[in-house]
Amino acid sequence: MRVNEIFYSLQGEGYFTGTPAVFVRFSGCNLSCSFCDTEHTTFTEMSEEDIVREVCAYPAAHVVITGGEPTMQLTASLVDRLHAVGKYVQIETNGTYPLPEGCRVDWITCSPKYRPVVLMHIDELKVVFQTPEQDMSQYDGMEAQVYSLQPCDVNDDRRNAVILKDAVEYCLSHPKWRLSLQTHKIINVR
What we know:
- By secondary structure, this protein is α/β, with parallel strands linked by helices.
- Helices cover 20% and strands 25% of the residues.
- The protein is globular, with a radius of gyration of 16 Å.
- Residues 16-190 form the Radical SAM core domain.
């Protein structure tokens, strides 16, 4: 498997914000989003056993499989191996690929990006919010336990402040959505 990095930190966004977690970042993505803030092109080839061994070097039970786009490489056997050592497995995906057959991920965070979502079940819908003119109606039919609205970080403090203000107003006007800040950037952790 092509692994960009494995690291230990706090989950910085979404439903599990603040949760200590081991992040397994796979290399590669099927999309090229202008606002992507993740370097995920380099990699080290690792076996499933290598990944589990490195994950187990950290004390957290929560594991976040992310990318790039992790479903391009994720296997049911990796998830099973992580469960076998007592890990809770969350995936962060753009939803453009289905999970592999038999893959029993504990929590699916789907953050759609410009392409139709093919996942049949998601736990959290996390939308990157860029502007009040953004067509949010495209998410009306998507069912999830949690609806998170995350202001887009455009690396411009003034513009970010406007986006945040607009996202807060959207949540207040549409209370099924909850604000998801990128707290890892705010508190300066990975």
